[in-house]
Design brief:
508 residues; mainly alpha; Growth Hormone, Chain: A; 24 helices; binds beta-D-glucopyranose
């Protein structure tokens, strides 16, 4: 024992540094779960600007838009319309909390399969919706779907990836979210001019869910999850697949077994265990990171990019194109992140991305204030609208290499095995809960605070960047079961985790 922390026999540098073809394919398949979340993010923003959709389900909003009789920041200010977008998040929140149980007892992979199937049914109902009740029912099922997949997939990726490249592998999840966003924006662009276009946009959500569900059915569960569920031969097989057939996986398997036994011996319900003092830093991060991710204001940009661009004077088509450009920039920056995250570390990306987003939000507020006037009634000129788009692209790039992928990575890598699914659940629930509140209030906020809305988010970005600088230890390259050491060495968190027994020992 070192400093009261359990010692596990992990070789220096951890186990298994190798990247095998099998681990790459498995992780791509698992990461593709992000597709359904991304598809929905993009689709809901787009259909809510489509005339026939508004006419059928939200006629008063359509009248406002057609007559343009209100101040341009307020055209889409409707609680019912916002409820359409955000109902998914409430359902997702509830599902993510249940998901930790399912993920622990039935495995990470089965949670992904379950989530994919639920999403598929929701997409079918939405595509065929005859009234608003069907529309909301469909969205609730979509919410259940992403609640399960967002909880299980990041944990899956962190458990299977070689520690040295865990950041890059886990970033794949956000990358697929980004692909989903761009695909749905393109589809919206193609369907926008047809009366039934919104049906196609919503119904096509069945495609990404079919892709990810089929993929998930073909991969095996993570070694940790199989060990936890007492399936040792399968766990060994899964380890051999991930590390290569010729690898010696006995030591790693023995360590997983040891950690699982300690977890079982502790015997408390995971939602109680996580409240223990020794897990305070973990819990703070599982709540703080997703909360901060949302108050960067990303979804305001993502959901409402078309609405936003239309509100500040772009035509419908150019608003959708602007949303596509934004999505592509975001995608490129996620790729950059995957190359950098294991080299320069998580903290570096958080801080650089934070500064970049802060500057952009302040600048957007400045341009809108100067051009649309205090009342928001003046129309923005084409030149300034383009400047807003450029600034938003720079903002999206900042998010794409920092808070986007890292908010899925950090909660999935900091927890010990016994409470990892619980930690991830809390994190997804906070993510969805915050998204719900923000999306419910954003259009009203935009209507009343106008450009000041962007300053509100800039303030949060400054706060979260300071938070990371002070409180988040660097986790790059550390094997999951040795993560305890990073908290122990931390100037502030050290006092919470010292003298604790858990299976994240600083053994080497
Ligand atoms: C966030 C979503 C966001 C998306 C944008 C995700 O990481 O959790 O709320 O819409 O990134 O690409």
């Amino acid at each position: 024992m070192a400093g009261g922390v359990l010692v596990v026999d992990v070789p220096a540098g951890g186990f298994h540094g190798k990247v095998t073809a099998s681990v790459v394919i498995t992780c791509i398949v698992a990461a593709s779960s992000g597709l359904i979340f991304g598809y929905d993010i993009g689709i809901s923003g787009g259909v809510t600007t489509m005339g026939p959709f508004l006419k059928k389900f939200f006629p008063s909003v359509q009248r406002n838009a057609a007559e343009a009789k209100t101040n341009m920041y307020c055209v889409y200010d409707s609680q019912a319309l916002t409820a359409f977008t955000s109902s998914l998040y409430i359902a997702g929140l509830a599902a993510s909390l249940v998901a930790s149980r399912l993920t622990a007892t039935l495995g990470r992979r089965n949670s992904m399969v379950f989530g994919g199937c639920t999403f598929f049914i929701g997409a079918a109902i939405n595509g065929g919706a005859a009234n608003i009740a069907m529309l909301i029912l469909g969205r609730i099922l979509l919410g259940f779907g992403v609640g399960f997949t967002n909880q299980a997939a990041p944990v899956y990726l962190s458990e299977v990836a070689p520690p040295k490249w865990r950041g890059a592998f886990n970033t794949g999840f956000q990358f697929f979210i980004g692909i989903g966003v761009v695909a749905s924006n393109c589809i919206n662009y193609g369907t926008a001019h047809h009366n039934w276009g919104w049906r196609l946009s919503l119904g096509l959500a069945m495609v990404p869910s079919a892709i990810m569900t089929t993929g998930a059915l073909m991969i095996s569960d993570t070694p940790s999850s199989l060990v936890e569920r007492g399936k040792l031969p399968e766990a060994k097989l899964s380890l051999l697949k991930a590390r290569g057939k010729d690898s010696d996986v006995e030591a790693e398997l023995a360590e997983l077994v040891k950690c699982s036994e300690i977890a079982k011996a502790a015997g408390r319900a995971p939602f109680l265990t996580i409240l223990e003092r020794q897990y305070r830093p973990h819990l703070v991060m599982a709540i703080g990171i997703p909360f901060f991710q949302q108050v960067t204001g990303i979804n305001i940009i993502a959901f409402y990019a078309p609405v936003l661009f239309k509100s500040v004077g772009f035509g419908s088509d150019s608003a959708l194109i602007a949303a596509i450009i934004l999505g592509l920039v975001n995608l490129g920056s996620i790729l950059v992140s995957s190359f950098v995250v294991d080299r320069y570390g998580r903290r570096f990306l958080f801080i650089v991305g934070g500064i970049q987003m802060f500057v952009c939000q302040v600048a957007v507020a400045g341009v809108l204030a100067a051009t649309t006037g205090v009342s928001g009634t003046k129309h923005i000129t084409k030149g300034y609208a383009t400047l807003v788009l450029v600034l938003m692209c720079m903002y999206a790039a900042g998010f794409g290499w920092s808070w986007g992928p890292l908010s899925w990575l950090i909660p999935s890598e900091i927890f010990p095995m016994k409470i990892r699914p619980t930690g991830q659940s809390i994190s997804v629930a906070v993510n969805f809960g915050t998204t719900f509140v923000l999306s419910q209030t954003f259009l009203t906020m935009l209507c009343h605070f106008k450009y000041g809305t962007f300053l509100f988010y800039a303030g949060w970005i400054a706060a979260m960047t300071g938070f990371v600088a002070l409180f988040l230890p660097e986790t790059k390259g550390i094997p999951l079961n040795s993560m305890g050491a990073v908290w122990e060495r931390h100037w502030y968190w050290g006092r919470f985790v010292k003298e604790q027994l858990h299976c994240q020992g600083n053994s080497h």
